[in-house]
Amino acid sequence: MAWLFLKVLLVGVSFLGCLYPLVDFCFSGETRAPKPNFVIILADDMGWGDLGANWAETKDTANLDQMAAEGMRFVDFHAAASTCSPSRAALLTGRLGLRNGVTHNFAVTSVGGLPLNETTLAEVLQQAGYVTGMIGKWNLGHHSSYHSNFSGFDYYFGIPYSHDMGCTDSPGYNLPPCPACPRDEGPSRSPDRDCYTDVALPLYENLRIVEQPVNLSSLAHSASGRPFLLYVGLAHMHVPLTRTRLSADPQGRAPYAAGLREMDGLVGQIKDGADRTAKGNTFLWFTGDNGPWAQKCELAGSVGPFTGSWQVPRGGSPAKQTTWEGGHRVPAVAYWPGRVPGNVTSAALLSVLDIFPTVVALAGASLPRGRHFDGLDASDVLFGGSQTGHRVLFHPNSGAAGEYGALQTVRLERYKAFYITGGARACDGSVGPARSHEPPLIFNLEDDVTEAVPLDTGSAEYQRVLPQVREVLANVLHDIAGDNVSRADYTLDPAAAPCCDPHQTACRCQTASQPVFPGAGAAGNETASARPPSF
């Protein structure tokens, strides 16, 4: 019987929480493991045009471009939301925020997280005999039972939320720049916009804070015996941006380009590790959680094609949080030598929502009963040459105009309808006015991918598409109303903030000697533990 051994070497963790996983694989025995392994890599705030294979002006993604040349690249692939927590919840549940309850981001002081009655991809694969691990940004709750170890992951190493949600000793590039963590007691500082100054960014290993604020460190764990799911939540390309040793560049590239090059190197290391010894039995799926924030705020990156006049209010707005294509159309590459055909570009309409049902099917597992799913099994696209994905996708409001989670943007084949636009915060801090549209704006993306000019409401094309849009929107809302839906707890409580030593300024500590559980306070009175699994 064959045994697959996975070694995850975390050779560096920067002060920004940028995790550098090196993955080594080796086989012993005579036959291949019967079930495939899965590596899901989720980039943070990476634009569609940040992938060189998508946008020729991008020169910093050589490894991803090679992976696309050897695998399948998706050009009409979408995040399930335009901000962090809802997109990640959708990936792990295969359900939109109106079903899984996660409609906007969780905070440092959030009491809740991904509702406990939701079933995650990791939990399904655990039941199917997989060992599961996560490295990187979680962002689905950290207080009490909302930690990743209680959501199906045998092992976790990373940060509980975005790396701009806690101070560090060496802040990276941001606009405006953030101050370093305070080192001695004094009056509370008034933070600049988007800067958290009083609670340091923690680094967790399972349920234990091992550093606060996070700094360079190393850790190694080895594993054996069972097929695995590895979920890597990269901190790249979220601000603040840094230039670490892996992104050192004698050409003096701009911070965004250097960070992109660094991220690409990490993905290349994971791919190379799989190729060395598990090339035919490990499926890598790379994509992003939502569109970019940093690029259009003067931190130098390729803006890509999604910059139509309807999208950019005065002040220069990033795409993140909006339902314009730049907010949710993300790069995506599938790589599985011998299974997924190489050098293929797919125009199938797909989504991060599809990762859950596709991986479950490939693992030979079953979808959880008693709930409806918004994703589809993309196996026919991956292996059968089909160009048919979704007929309809819904893009939830994600922090710009409209109520959180509401489905007021509808993709119907090549058409896209907006019932509300605006409300996005510009780079200068101003917020554009929200504008409702009844009847909706409708764009033909085949002719106008930049969403620059909506169809004339009096045209035959508009009049033909409008009733179809209204019908599919009414149908999904009716389906959600009859579904088993969850409600996330968005209560805030300062006691829920992760703090390994409340007696130290900014909760500063190095390698806590005892497990520290979020919300347990100084007493640390919870007794649950999570040991590293035998990967």
UniProtKB/TrEMBL annotation:
One of its GO terms (molecular function) is metal ion binding. Its main location: other. It catalyses: an aryl sulfate + H2O = a phenol + sulfate + H(+); Hydrolysis of the 3-sulfate groups of the N-sulfo-D-glucosamine 3-O-sulfate units of heparin. Its cofactor is Ca(2+). Its EC number is 3.1.6.1, 3.1.6.15. Keywords: Calcium, Disulfide bond, Glycoprotein, Hydrolase, Lysosome, Metal-binding, Signal. Residues 36-365 form the Sulfatase N-terminal domain. Signal peptide: none annotated. It is found in: Lysosome. Coiled coil: none annotated. GO terms for cellular component: lysosome. InterPro entries: Alkaline_phosphatase_core_sf, Sulfatase, Sulfatase_CS, Sulfatase_N. It is an enzyme of class 3 (hydrolase). It comes from the Eukaryota. PANTHER family: ARYLSULFATASE FAMILY MEMBER (PTHR42693), ARYLSULFATASE G (PTHR42693:SF42). Belongs to the sulfatase family. This is Arylsulfatase G.
